[in-house]
Amino acid sequence: MELQELRRVLGHFVTGVTVVTTMDKVGTPFGLTVNAFTSLSLNPPLVLVCIDKGAQCYRCFDQSKIFAVNVLSEDQEAISRRFASRGIEKFAGVKWHRGKLGVALLDGAMGHIECKVVHSYEGGDHTIYVGKVVNTAASGKRPLIFFKGKYHRLPRQEF
Ligand SMILES: Cc1cc2nc3c(=O)[nH]c(=O)nc-3n(C[C@H](O)[C@H](O)[C@H](O)COP(=O)(O)O)c2cc1C
């Protein structure tokens, strides 16, 4: 299976876009753009995210055992691009505040899901983190959508 072809075919699956954040021991925020986010269980309340072992913030994720999923709204494409860029100060100029666990919650997101890691699993070049949901919020904004490698928005008339 050609890597590029696999990426192309998998890109046919429509997803939302999230920025998953965590922090180091002294509270410095880290985060990256993630669409490998899934709701897993309602009772107990569990979600999962898949984080690339090669990401610069990977070590921080592996150590902190807490994370927050920021579900991006349709006007946050620039935020998505920013948190998918390497080697920049991702939080510079971005408005955020700390949630109950102390992890960064991005202002303007359509939803926040704060989690404590309860399991982690090998997933090839990624690690799968299962988080127990400890706090949530939803703003009622409209979602940013990712499909075939591009950003999209829901048509106005339907929702
Ligand atoms: C739409 C989109 C979805 C992404 N989904 C994931 C993902 O699910 N998991 C992941 O590890 N990286 C994902 N990435 C790539 C990371 O956001 C990107 O490589 C990031 O720069 C890695 O963090 P780092 O800067 O700490 O290395 C995605 C990027 C984009 C644009």
List strands and helices in order, with pairings:
Blueprint: H1 3-10, E1 15-16, E2 18-23, E3 29-34, E4 37-41, E5 46-52, H2 58-64, E6 66-71, H3 77-83, E7 96-98, E8 104-106, E9 111-123, E10 126-138, E11 144-147, E12 150-153
Bound molecules: flavin mononucleotide.
Q: What key phrases describe this protein's structure?
A:
binds flavin mononucleotide, 7-stranded antiparallel sheet, mainly beta, Pnp Oxidase, Chain A, 3 helices, 159 residues, 3-stranded antiparallel sheet
CATH hierarchy, class: Mainly Beta
Could you spell the SSE succession in H and E letters?
HEEEEEHEHEEEEEE
Number of domains: 1
Which structural category fits the helices and strands? mainly beta
The CATH architecture: Roll
Q: Outline, from the CA principal axes? A: globular
* Largest sheet properties: 7 strands, antiparallel
Radius of gyration: 15 Å
Count helical runs.
Answer: 3
Q: Beta-strand percentage? A: over 45%
User: Order of strands side by side in the largest beta sheet?
Assistant: 3-2-6-9-10-5-4
* Residue-averaged pLDDT: 96
Bound molecules: flavin mononucleotide
CATH topology: Pnp Oxidase, Chain A
Q: What's the count of strands?
A: 12
Q: Look at the structure and name the CATH superfamily.
A: Electron Transport, Fmn-binding Protein, Chain A
Unreliable stretches (pLDDT < 50, length at least 5) are none
Span from first to last CA? 38 Å
Plain-language structure description:
The chain is mainly beta. It has one domain (16-99, 107-149): Roll (Pnp Oxidase, Chain A), CATH 2.30.110.10. It contains 3 helices and 12 strands. The chain has helices at residues 3-10, 58-64, 77-83, and strands at residues 15-16, 18-23, 29-34, 37-41, 46-52, 66-71, 96-98, 104-106, 111-123, 126-138, 144-147, 150-153. The strands form 3 sheets. Strands 3-2-6-9-10-5-4 form a 7-stranded antiparallel beta sheet, with helices on both faces. The protein has a 3-stranded antiparallel beta sheet with strand order 1-11-12, with no helix packed on it. It has a two-stranded antiparallel ribbon with strand order 7-8. A hairpin with a 5-residue loop joins strand 2 (18-23) and strand 3 (29-34). It is globular. The mean pLDDT is 96. The structure holds flavin mononucleotide. Flavin mononucleotide binds next to strand 3 and strand 5. Flavin mononucleotide binds at residues 17, 32-36, 50-52, 55-57, 83-86, 126, 146.
